[in-house]
Amino acid sequence: MKQFIVDAFTEKIFSGNPAAVCVVENFPPEDLMLNIARENNLSETAFVAKEKNFYRLRWFTPATEVNLCGHATLATGFVILTQYEKILPAVEFETLSGKLTVERKGKFFEMNFPAYEPKKIPVTDEMSDAIGAKVLEAYLDRDLLMVLENAAAVENLVPNFDKLKNLDGLIQAVTAADKNFDCVSRIFAPKIKIPEDPVTGSTHCLIAPYWSKKLGKKKISARQASARGGTLHCEVLGNRIKISGSAALFAVSELKI
User: Fold this and answer.
1) Contact, 177 vs 149, CB < 8 A?
2) Catalytically annotated residue among 11, 25, 30, 44
């Protein structure tokens, strides 16, 4: 089984969010895919198999299979379009979240995802206690989005991961306005054994619609302020969202399975 390690949402290795991409003829048993994800110990390991004129794609964290992952989709699209289908302008994936596409856009790779709907919920003391900062607003879809006072609050907070597990949402995100980008964020997923995710495409399906409505613009430039860091270019189009970024190939290996 051939495996690629790709740093997504960055133009250089050792930054962005690393994902493993396993290219298979047929999907292995689920327990084997989960064991491979655990062995890689990255936030996501993607498995992709070609079926006629499209590819089927699945994502695994070290804890479980998930229904949507942005950076591993970007990494997989990058692998397919640069290593296997070099003349194609785009690749189509069938996933647990429906049909997703990755298209070449100059130096970027553009994904088309379903947008989440930011549903406003009451701010609780438990939210502020868990993240260690004042929460101004809170929104919930698959993930929980908490709006903070400013970029410094996002960058400097030190969350309590045990308390984060008790909050709503599969993933917990914080965001604020930023002076160089439209928004800045940090994203945590202790429920699926990812304390802090370096760059998270799927949660920007919630973050970008929030800022699109707040700022009255469709195109949102987003910075994720993790230690590795990354940049996402988002365009909100009704119930869909386009997310673009670069990718860098770190390694190619052959799994002895």
Assistant:
1) no
2) 44
Q: Nearest to residue 170, comparing CAs of 198, 133, 143?
A: 143
| Domain definitions of the chain by residue range | 2-112+244-254, 119-238
Residue 151 Cα distances to 14, 144, 158, 223, angstroms? 24, 18, 14, 10
Look up the pTM and report it. 0.89
Closest CA to 206 of 228, 239, 245, 229: 239
Give yes or no on whether 2-112+244-254 and 119-238 have one common fold: yes
44 labelled catalytic: yes
- CATH classification of 119-238 is 3.40.50.300, yes or no? no
**CATH class of the domain defined by 2-112+244-254:** alpha beta
Residues 78, 58 contacting (CB under 8 angstroms): no
Each residue's pLDDT expressed in tens, for the chain with a length of 257 residues = 999 999 999 999 999 999 999 999 999 999 999 999 999 999 999 999 999 889 999 999 999 999 999 999 999 999 999 999 999 999 999 999 999 999 999 999 999 999 999 999 999 999 999 999 999 999 999 999 999 999 999 999 999 999 999 999 999 999 999 999 999 999 999 998 899 999 999 999 999 999 999 999 999 999 999 999 999 999 999 999 999 999 999 999 999 98
